[in-house]
């Protein structure tokens, strides 16, 4: 089943219903700051990258013109201003609590870099910064648990192991079976829109979707669908009724090299947001969401400032643009005239209960978003991949809006006078209900409290690239 996006949706006019695949989020990745492996055909990739840069007229070296670098430095210098959105957010939180949050995220980065951690039974984690403790969902028993407990103790962290029924591999296999079967008669008229992976409330997967017939989403029909789902994969814990997804597809006059969070206009008239910058083959690149499909992109209100052409894509929902990217990220409202920007210093690896901010070009910065699941499968019309789900906990705020797709999901750090952020993800869209009570937006009129976003570390690793940091 396909559905129409509003005029200012992210990309093409129609999209497939949500699909499911947990491979991206369930891949153990390198620790923070590590260099991603280049693909086996890296020489071929490098040659293609050189050609793409040349075709787009982008700079052929790692450093852009001195003038633009100086201007970007001025943006970064303004980042310590107390009026920026993330600074206002940080000012309202106990500094000791912020430090505990950062300690727990650093431990997560260490944990997912332990060789064999997934095979040993690690599934996911949930953080409790109030008590500097973490709960690790773990399938089976492994000697690695003792090493993990020891490293946590060294950092002052209390670890609890919560036994779960299924391993990462088993969850992924079950999810693959569900998605491979969605066009078979077993589902009758039920449309699968997403699959939610394990968290603190369930060990298996929850299949989300709806029946096509009007009024057919009854308790009896749901029970029948659950039985059908469990015949496909015994790791299905439940079936939940959910609507079709909404994909989010503006700071509008940025110049090269480009910050994350800029408002970009596609050659087809669509609008998206620029993501965190990356390095590959010795060049810097801008990123956005894969479902932002225009052939070329410019700054929304400065058509002479080219973000380049659409280029390579990642299996986790990211897209490279040939324009040069930079290690800064816009902070503040979409129409903030001050142009606050923060420096990206590395990846932020999230756990359940962690807090993040979104920075969409259409709606601006929104903090107070709490992670409640790390493996919600999402289909952007090009394929299914795993995303992280965040819920806005402040009733006066939103999570994101149309026009924000591709934008940075970040963790603001309390260090360095509040001028730095960690790259947590790339905003994709929302599986939650939409509302028009959004506050100030640039172009679109709908938004949501719930948002789904890709892990930025996964996007970067999938592209065989490294994160550009300052």
Automatic annotation (TrEMBL):
Signal sequence interval, chain numbering: 1-36
Superkingdom: Bacteria
Keywords: Signal
Protein name, as recorded: Streptogrisin C
């Amino acid at each position: 089943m396909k559905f129409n996006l509003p005029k200012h949706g992210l990309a093409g006019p129609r999209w497939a219903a949500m699909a499911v695949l947990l491979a991206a989020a369930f891949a153990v990745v390198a620790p923070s700051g590590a260099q991603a492996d280049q693909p086996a055909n890296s020489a071929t990739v490098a040659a293609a990258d050189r050609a793409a840069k040349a075709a787009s007229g982008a700079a052929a070296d790692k450093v852009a013109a001195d003038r633009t670098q100086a201007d970007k430095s001025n943006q970064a210098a303004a980042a310590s201003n107390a009026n920026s959105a993330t600074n206002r957010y940080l000012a309202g939180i106990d500094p000791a609590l912020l430090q505990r949050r950062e300690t727990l995220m650093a431990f997560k980065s260490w944990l997912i870099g332990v060789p064999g951690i997934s095979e040993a039974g690690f599934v996911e984690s949930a953080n409790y910064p109030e008590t500097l403790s973490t709960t690790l969902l773990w399938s089976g028993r492994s000697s690695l648990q003792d090493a993990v407990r020891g490293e946590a103790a060294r950092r002052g962290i209390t670890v609890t192991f919560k036994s779960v029924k299924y391993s990462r591999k088993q969850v992924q296999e079950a999810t693959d079976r569900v998605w491979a079967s969605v066009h078979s008669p077993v589902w009758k008229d039920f449309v699968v829109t997403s699959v939610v992976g394990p968290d603190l409330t369930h060990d298996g997967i929850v299949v989300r979707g709806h029946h096509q017939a009007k009024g057919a989403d009854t308790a009896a029909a749901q029970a029948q669908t659950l039985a059908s789902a469990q015949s496909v994969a015994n790791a299905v814990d439940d079936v939940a009724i959910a609507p079709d997804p909404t994909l989010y597809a503006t700071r509008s006059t940025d110049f090269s090299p480009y910050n994350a969070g800029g408002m970009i206009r596609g050659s087809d008239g669509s609008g998206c947001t620029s993501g965190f910058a990356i390095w590959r083959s010795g060049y810097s690149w801008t990123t956005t969401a894969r479902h932002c499909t225009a052939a070329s992109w410019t700054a929304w209100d400065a058509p002479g400032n080219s973000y380049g052409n659409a280029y390579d894509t990642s299996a986790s929902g990211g897209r490279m643009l040939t324009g040069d990217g930079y290690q800064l990220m816009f902070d503040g409202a979409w129409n903030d005239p001050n142009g606050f920007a923060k420096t990206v210093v590395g990846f932020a690896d999230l756990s359940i209960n962690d807090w993040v901010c979104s920075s969409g070009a259409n709606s601006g910065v929104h903090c107070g978003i709490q992670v409640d699941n790390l493996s919600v499968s999402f289909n952007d019309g090009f394929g299914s991949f795993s995303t992280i789900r965040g819920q806005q906990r402040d009733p006066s705020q939103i999570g994101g809006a149309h026009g924000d797709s591709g934008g940075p999901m970040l963790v603001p750090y309390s260090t360095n006078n509040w001028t730095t952020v960690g790259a947590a993800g790339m905003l994709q869209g929302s599986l939650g209900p939409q509302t028009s009570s959004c506050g100030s937006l640039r172009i679109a009129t709908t938004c949501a409290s719930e948002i789904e976003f890709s892990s930025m570390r996964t996007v970067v690793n999938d592209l065989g690239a490294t994160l550009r940091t300052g």
